[in-house]
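Human: Here is a favour to ask of a fellow structure person. Comparing notes only helps if you start from a blank page. I am asking you to supply a protein in sequence and structure-token form. Write it directly below this note and I will take it from there.

Assistant:
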Amino acid sequence: MLMAPSARSVLMYVCGIIFLVGSRAERTDDEISDVFQTEGTFWARQVSASDWITSRKGVLHIAEAEGVFKNWRAQLENANCRNCGKQQTSVSSAGLTPEMPESLLEEETQDVEEIMQSSGPPTRVLKALAHASMPQPALASCLSMALDLSALGIPGVTLRLAIRGEVAYTLCTRCFSWKADADFAFEWGFAVLGAPLKFGFHVAGSLDLKELPCEDAAGSHFCRFLNVVLPPEAQHLASTRSRCHSDSPFESLTAFIKYQWQRLRTQTRGDGQVWANDLEKELHAFSDKMKIYPLLFQDPIRATKSSRILLATCIKGTDLLVRDVLDANDPFCQLEVALADSTLEENYKRVYGGTGPKKLGDCTFDVRTRQCHNLDRCLYKPSMYKRRLCRLVPEFMGELWRSSILLDTPTPIWKESHGFKLPDGSNDIKMHAWVYDFDAHKGSATIGQNFTARVTVGPEPLTLSLGLKRQDGRQGELLVKLEWLKPEKGEEPGALEGPLQAMVAALLGFTGKLPDYADELLDRFNAASAEYDEGVDYSSISGRYLARWRLASARENLQQKELDEMSEAIQDEVDPHAPLTPEGCKWSRESKQCEPSLYCTSQGQTCKLKEIAEKPCHDVPAGEFCCGTSCTGHSSKKQCQNVSMVCLAPSSFFESAKRCACSPGKCYDEVEQTCKVVPLDCTRGNPQQQRNCEKEKLFRRFKQRQQAAGDSTHSFSIWHMRLQDLEARFEARPCSSIQIRSDERVLNFQRTFQSASARQKPEDRSSVFTELVISATNLFVRSVADVQAMFNIYFANAAAWDDDCLTLVPSFSNFFEFEDDGEVSHLGTQWRPSSYQLTHRVRGKVSEPAAEPMADEENPWCAYTFASVERQQSGRIHFARRDPPLQADLFVSPRELNGTMMPHLWCELARKLRSTPEGRNRSFGEKRYEEGWAVGFEAACSQLAFTATGGEGRFHIWRRYDCEKVVLGSAFLTIFPSFAAKVQETHSALGRLLEDALQCAGQLSQGNRQFKPHDPYVTESCAVDIESMLKRENEEDAAKQRRAEFLAVTASAALSTLQRWLKEISDMGTMLRMDFEAVFGRGHKLSGLAFTADAGKGFQQVKDMLGRDDAIQQRSETVQAHLVQKAWRTRGQLQKSLFPPPVHYTGALEGGIVVGRAKDICSVEMAQGVRFDIVNQRSGVTFAPTLVQEERLCASGSFAPLKSLEISIIACTRAIDIDGKSEAETSFAFRFKSILSVEDLGKKLQIKMGEIFTQGSKLGTSELAKDKVTSSPAWLLAKSLLKDPTAILSEALAASSEHLKEQVNSIGHKISKLSSKFVGAAVGIDSFLSLKDYHLLDVQLGLTKVGDAPYYPTFQVEFKKVTAAGLGVGMPGLLNMKITAHVSQAYDLSEVFSELYHLLVDKQDQKGYSRCLECLDAPGYKFCFNPTVSSKQQFTCQQAACPPGWETAVDATECGTVVSDDGNEDDLFT
């Protein structure tokens, strides 16, 4: 039995075989015999002495070797493409007989296997050749360097370095492959008895990448979703999964690089799986996470214990805080409640479980933490007598609750509630109330307390005014509201209680963010607030982009895009005299100018078209320019000579200095601030000239507006922004690692309004007021989008969720929103407002934080740009601070709420609710809202731009890219219809104001309005048509003043409306909770419409969808395909797939010694010498999520007696897993590689690099016969091994040197007979420039065995054509460098040689074909036949030349031309 060999035993075995087979193959037969009489016997003697062959583990015994190659053809692992046989059967006709079936020359006529089974031996061989006739092209490049250290004082030593890369393409499967090799060798040469000898060692590495077709990579996501990206006509082809689908070889290369990068990151993080991208990771985990959903519905209904809930609310306190008494003013309210008729022992057991402090002496002080033990019942009370006094808080062991801690307020208003669970009994309760002042350094000091009060709480709510005794002896007051919570009606939730609790916690976190968000935006309506307005000049701002400020470059690009669109839409009639091209302009000798001069201008004597544009003429302003000596002392003025102006003498006695003016034919351009040509008419010219003209006019109009109304071109320094980013990172703020490349702040609306009111020209004020209204509507839409984004973060874990239930993740954890440090956390209370931002998720309960904070790339708050005064992402989410669930009217114990969201549950419940009668009758439940509701203002996105020329006017459609839009999803509308109603109300109010402003500004016509005018002035004085707009060009100042006043009032009303909306957002918490409760209930029972509508049919459909394992499996597959399709569309369908193509990779690292010439990986020819290596191989696939790689340890040896022949043997071992059991796999590989022919091409090669993968003809028998592939050394050696495998592997190797000697002599005899031909052909390529064509044959025999199983043989023969071009440069005696390029075409002849060998060994008949094979199997024989004679004498096998007129076959591939029907069985050899 062959066990896994050790590295030493494998190496010794390989070395022995290599040495015996090849040590003197270049010598003559007599020399070989003499050598093995001595050296061979010596080696055998050494083996016998150690008994290595028969005793060492890892030896292949003869009993195992026998039968290894029996029936080996049936077990052949055909390396050729499995599918090419059915698709490509065309074969070269060279060397084929006329009797060859025509079906072999037609493509796709018969199945390959059927033809092979029904045809004779020659047909099967030719059919095999047809399969292998398609080449596998490859392109390789190599760089080699040799450094001779003799010049450095180290004689005989050479360092060699070579790097080689190759890319190949398989025509059959359309797969690409890569191979990279690197080799570093140390070589020492010296002389022994006058003969040169070289010795060295080397280290090499290699990497093989092979793209896999989907039938070999069914588990990859690329193949699973291949149908998503393939066109319909290609999805059902039989060859779809047998072919690769990458468009270039670089796809497989980048797939491997990305895989290794992800693998490195995974190992660094300590994860167990590696993914190509986040989508692949999500898809892989989706199925596992979805399996929890059926458990939510299969869990038996649990009946809850009957208990009453007393809802107690701390409302507010008055006359409590005195600054001269206490340093701090951070109060919190504390209530203790129990039934009046319960005893202390009963309460102690029910509330506290009977453990912990029971009396004052049980409260102890912890010196290490400087806090009291059991902080839920013991509080630290400073005292001048007892510095470490811990007071027992519960007076009668009732349930204790504390409100949040308010910051720095003398009159606290909490309005916080808690539900006290009380057993059945009377309605009499006893309650103790405290107000504490929290101080982190001194602990919690009592501000006031009310001793035990006994009250009766009836059916109606009861509000108590409790007097609190303060420390200074005065009386304070605390308002407390008590009421019995009405129980929900509905079914028990069972296991659904957890997800419902998580939804409630998410709701309270979502609504808790709204006040801070709104307050930050309301600050933008305070003119005194200028803290966040760096880089903005409000004195010249235009009023645009206030809702989303942009950098100056972004604003310019956006406006240029708008102008380009407007100018491209211009289409006027063409002046018949206007030339359309520059060729239409001709030089006139008479006029000395280009004609027609109206449209043409000259550049020297070259004519070209003018760019016609209107430029108004104005006098040069004296205050800005000066002439000559008048500029002295006026450094702020520009000299007119420097701006293409002329100086004119004073025109009157009163002018003392020269003045600037434009030269004749030009006029001053206020925009460009220089003199330009006289304006021309834009209505003339060809279309391109007219478009340029109108584009110039529009540009000037907007630029004048921006200068007059004043758009700031000053941008805040991008370097300062980066400095702020570094500051945020230093402070470790959430989202601080997100790089910001845009501004997107909200600017100060009130400061802009005041700035506009101070402008002198009424048209300037009108322009700013109009833009201010547009910005107000944009901020409104942006705030609506932000509210939905906050909901999406809490309920879908993605701010930009697209309202599609199938794109939701299966589950995720809520955010941790409680305090996690100090006494505040131990007290069970909370700062309000909290200064802590959201940094952690929860684990299990909402009060339990995860161990690690969220990474910025995984934090959904970092992926959305909220409206804010800040430009850094960490500042934009400053409002997202911790807001714990404090409202106990939904749940009794907020800290015990479940924190795991199951988004598919609530989303499907909301979706099914829309289809019920109750859902359709709700607000926004109509069918038109099934796809959501688009909120925006069309008037803010598309307006009119008017230009006038010479009494004629034109309107342009102005598409504005700064307008905001949002789609409120159907799920959001279903859950929060009241919010949508508020949006609709504010949208209508702002819409009327916006359209009034735009119509009065001439940017919207009456017919395009969506809302009715808000003011009669709009209808009376703001007509928008060409005639009215032309009148505005010359209207009086009073009319302009009246319009500016109206727009000011409209802008003020828009700002007031927007302020009211933001205040509504701040107070929307209660309204949103009521909407939520109507749909999902409070979570105690299945009471919401989502569970009860239409008699529960919608809920039942959700149970059927998510409550069964088979349904979940189907949903998982549907969701995964849906996610891939959606992501592919999102990327613009530019990539063939979202996933990299599947690739198999093999990396190897080897090192060993070399006797003779070191191997040159850049050379096609073999380096004569012997090599012994130890190789470590690692292989895997890029689509496997696990980090496990296949690893094997190998020992190899190779021997090259000639430059045209190389023999190598490699033995490998590895451990593999079979059904959970580790087994040892052992393999031996024998490789024989020989060069068949070499041709020096010189300049004959004419092939383009771009045609490398399309060049090459199909392989025919004539070409193989010419190269004599079946009589090559490689095949002779391989055939010898196949015929008698025990010759090398037998244990008789150790016992019988004579038997070994005969085998080696036989092989050496065959090699030496061929050596004379190849020594001349296989010349070196050491010249300066070489260009050669090689034909090679590579034969590989393999034996693989697992455990105790028999060996499994593999066999592969490859014929390769290689064109090698080499360029050598260097410094003599020091450095030689060579650059080599290889273009190759490989053909897999495994099946061809399998057929030939099978026919030779089996000897199925003695007809011509078989006789030919038998003849040519003997070295040096020729097969002669006479095709014209039909007798038994038509065949002869002889060493001499064939008779005249007879045909000769010297290679087995030529036997197909032999015809024999006589059945002659006479002896063939003569």
Notes: The first helix runs from residue 7 to 22.
